[in-house]
Amino acid sequence: MLDTKIKSAIFYADTNEAANLEEFGAILLRNIEIFQKKIAVYRYKKYNFLYINTGIGLINAAIFAQKIIEEFPIENLINYGACGANLSINFPEMEKQLVFPERFYLLDAKTPWYPPGKLPSEPEFYENNKIGKKFNLGSSNSFIFKKKQVKDFKFVHFFDMEAFAFAQTASKNKLNFYCVKYLTDQIEKNTDKEIVNNSIKKGLKKAVEFSLVLLENI
Q1: What are the Nucleoside phosphorylase domain coordinates in residue numbering (predicted)?
Q2: Which residue range(s) make up the domain with 38?
Q3: What is the per-residue pLDDT across 139-196, written as a single tens digit (0 to 9) for each?
């Protein structure tokens, strides 16, 4: 029996992370418009879901996620996308693996009174990834490419520009959160724009496949 309810939404930020889901066996049902952007409704096997490009950055991620939650009774928020690595990471070893962050930090939050990443009256980090495994991920509105940008966050393994916002929004709305990342660059090293964008496209397949299979198990 087909599940006609939309219980899950898959979010990605960068247009380079977009996939032709029909090549993965999904069927496009229709498009809707939110914030002047087309949002696709797909079916994968018997599961209907939303596929959403938010645009890059924490604010875009938070706005789109909250709008979708208000418009659709989703239970599961899935985010896949690229990430960069701190110097503590063995890049060649991790480059071909998927990353499932356990803790999410806000790299832009710094005060004289609280630990790095903590805002007043907010948790120091979010730990709500249902598939999280040991790694810490920090999100910023800035692209992290120099170690001096994260000198207070040596305990963070990976960096992106949206996952914290998804983790926070999912937590505040009591949704199931699933986050899967893949590695494309490392601070102080391979930050050439063309190389990074090519790495984003190359690593896409595994993350998309994992996200679609996840729909069957949540």
Answers
A1: 9-85
A2: 3-215
A3: 999 999 999 999 999 999 999 999 999 999 999 999 999 999 999 999 998 667 888 8
Contact 163, 136 (CB under 8 A): no
What CATH number is given to the structural domain containing 193?
3.40.50.1580
| Structure token digits, residue 134 | 């040991």
Distance of CA 9 to the CA centre of its chain: 12
DSSP 8-state secondary structure symbol assigned to residue 121: T
Helix then strand count (H, E) for the chain reads 4, 10
Residue whose pair of structure tokens reads 């494309």 in the numeric block:
184
- Among 41, 102, 106, smallest CA distance to 68 is for 41
Residue-wise burial string across 65-78, b where 16 or more C-beta atoms lie within 10 A, e elsewhere:
beebbeebebebbb
User: Could you tell me where the DSSP H helices lie in 45-162?
Assistant: 58-71, 91-94
Q: What is the largest CA-CA distance in the chain?
A: 56
Within 8 A by CB and 6+ apart from 35, the residues are: 63, 64, 67
- Half-sphere exposure of residue 12: CA atoms within 13 angstroms, side-chain side: 21
- Terminal-residue alpha carbon distance, the chain: 17
pTM for the whole structure: 0.94
